[in-house]
Amino acid sequence: MIFGVVTLLLIGLIGRLMWIEYQKGEKYEKRVLSQQEYDSTILPYQRGNITDSKGSILATSVDVYNVILDCKVLNSNTDNIEPTITALRTCFADQIDESKVRDLIENKPKSQYNVLAKRLPYEEIQSFVEMQNNKKTGSSIKGVWFEKEYIRKYPYASLASAVIGFTTSGNVGMNGVENYYNSTLNGVNGREYGYLNSDNNFEKTVKPAVNGENVVLTIDANIQTIVENKIKDFVEQNTNAAREGAGAKHIGVLMMDPNNGEVLAMANYPNYDLTNPWDLSAYYTDEEIAAMDDKEKLKALNDMWNNFCTTYTYEPGSTAKPFTVAAGLETGTLTNDMTFMCDGYETISGHDIHCVNTSGHGLETMKKAIMDSCNDSLMQMSYKIGPANFAKYQKIFGFGYKTNIDLPGEARTDSLIFKKDELTTINLATNAFGQNFNTTMIQLASGFCSIINGGSYYQPHVVRKITDEAGNTIQENEAVLLKETISKQTSDQVKDYLYGTVCEGGTGQYAHVDGYSMGGKTGTAQKLPRGQGNYLVSFIGYAPQDNPQVVIYVVVDEPNAEDEAHSTYAQGIVKEILTEALPYMNIYPDQEVTEADEPSADGSPADGPTDTPESLPEDTDKAQAENEKESTIDAPVDNPDAQ
To answer: CA separation (Å) from 608 to 259, 384, 508, 596?
Structure first.
């Protein structure tokens, strides 16, 4: 009977335990496990590299270590305190205050996470690690461990800063490729768990980190360096030339492969140092910075961070004339044998709109009109083309639409382009020679590539491919042909006009690199408000003539000069860049070398034809108020990493 009773009680107990396990087992398991000591460490991922097209690293993440003190472990055996402090003093005399260590041990004896030093390279912790691993000394050094993390490094500092961008704490891309490809560059943190199993043995489980993928740019660091050096030279040579201040308000340079939409170089002034993107001292005095409130400082930072080639909108001036001519030829409203009489101006709606030559060019052929940058002829062409055709081909060439280049902050210009029913005679006439509507550099350059490559419009891009840690290609950004803009016949005809502009004595002759066949178009746009003497001058061109391999577009916004209205400021930069870049790109001379007039070293005008428009009517103001519209980055003023 007693045996039976005990057996029944045991069966009841087993049943009760089974019921508890079934109903509340997870709850009690967590309660028991919570009373044990665990070791849980985050294993940080490494953000992917950004390299140029040849493999040069432009942005990378390097490992650094935080020195962590575990007072609870150290105080568990007081004999280890002095040997540990001695080791810290020996290895980190400059980084760690001994008094702080002793204070933590005494006043926070059970604390387990105290940061003694942050972001030390491995070379600085190596000696301590060796002491820990030494059989003689390591046994008495306790309670110190190293927390690994990564910091972003930019080996070339300011090179291609507007394209690359930078990161803030938490691996958040703030600009450029760092922002656009943020999720691609970022990985996933891992974790290492330490725990006591059911046999009371300490076990570890490791979930490894997944590192980010690498981004390979279309940018060539050597070409980019040439471009940025020439911009720097121009700014230095023209600083305080006519007024106190920098050599220009803005400068943008864009180089592209017209046959696939790849951006070979993209640079602007002002730019910034990627290693310290919050530093305004290059452009403002200490007194000016101190006087800024948060809003003003954020605006100044955005002005410095902005990519001029994609975010800045402006009236292009005469660089738009090839598009007008191409639209006319393609629609048949213009033919190569047409002529136009330039008497120096056109009277439209009571306004006299002057040509670059106020005395008139006389009888102009189609080619000569482009070579002379004759506004009068272009206005007469616009009458023949008509509003419907003009508006249609502006859309075809991409004006008013984002190119969707793989960079953040590209400006919208749809509100800055006239619709068909808005193209009155005066609006049509001024639009024909590049005034009274806005564009961006990347927008105009992408359309221009299609004009000189036979009519193929490729989507511009700055990233060639994505690779993994081992260098294996994950994604290839191949050329994306979006549309055909014009026929090859029209393209060849326009190229002949552009060749004359550079190589046969036209307004673009000062951009010509001796020995090379080239084509291109100058631009001198009068800025709003009209009549104030402020101009944006530019040049867009290509080489070689028969099979263009590179397109270059240079914009100089308000050059520091008494007379700003000369495209030679931009042409001088173009010539300096191409003189070095063409041989590097294995594009060889294809013409006889001759001596030619050229602008002075600082880009000031030389004798000869120029592209200088006279004043425009005040009511040609479609772009007013948004003439200098730029995108901004919603970022905190204070650098979260400064601490």
So the answer is: 33, 31, 10, 12
Where does residue 371 rank: exposed (0-12), middle (13-18), buried (19+ CB within 10 A)?
buried
Token pair 């590049």 is found at: 434
- CA-to-CA distance for 556 and 572, rounded, in angstroms? 11
Output the pLDDT for position 30.
62
CB environment 473-500: b (16+ within 10 A), e (fewer): eeeebeeeeeeebbeeebbebbbbbbbb
pLDDT, tens digit (0-9, with 9 covering 90-100), for 264-299: 999 999 999 999 999 999 999 999 999 999 999 999
Gap between the Cα atoms of 62 and 311, Å rounded: 31
Compute the distance between CA of residue 122 and CA of residue 140 in angstroms, rounded to an integer: 22
Return the closest-CA partner of residue 395 out of 494, 302, 500, 482: 482
**For strand 362-365 and strand 339-342, is the pairing parallel, antiparallel, or unpaired?**
antiparallel
Least confident of 153-167, 215-229, 452-466, 621-635: 621-635
Of the candidates 315, 346, 356, 429, the one whose C-alpha atom is nearest the C-alpha of residue 611 is 356
Residue 139, C-beta contacts closer than 8 angstroms, at least 6 positions apart: none
pTM of the model: 0.86
CA distance 375 to 346: 9
Round the CA-based radius of gyration of the chain to a whole number and report it. Answer: 33
Which tokens hold the place of 16?
A: 């009760």
**pLDDT at 604 exceeding the cut of 50:** yes
Q: Peptide bond before 559: cis, by omega within 30 degrees of 0?
A: no
CA angle 570–626–298, rounded 5-degree value:
90
* pLDDT value at residue 192: 80
pLDDT band at 8 (very low <50, low <70, confident <90, very high): very high
- Report the distance separating Cα 167 and Cα 107, nearest Å: 37
**195 CB contacts (<8 Å, ≥6 apart)?**
33, 36, 38, 39, 202, 203, 205
Give the residue with greater pLDDT, 42 vs 230. 230
Residue 617 has pLDDT above 70, yes or no: no
| Dist. CA 79–CA 100, nearest whole Å | 19
Rounded (10°) angle between helices 122-133 and 81-91 = 150
Question: Tokens for 79?
Answer: 């004999």
How far is residue 138's CA from residue 534's CA, in Å, rounded to a whole number? 72
- Reading phi first (left if > 0) and then psi (alpha if -120 to 50, else beta), residue 45 is in beta
The per-residue pLDDT of the chain, averaged, comes to: 89
Band of the pLDDT at 483, cuts 50, 70, 90?
very high
d(CA 432, CA 355): 12
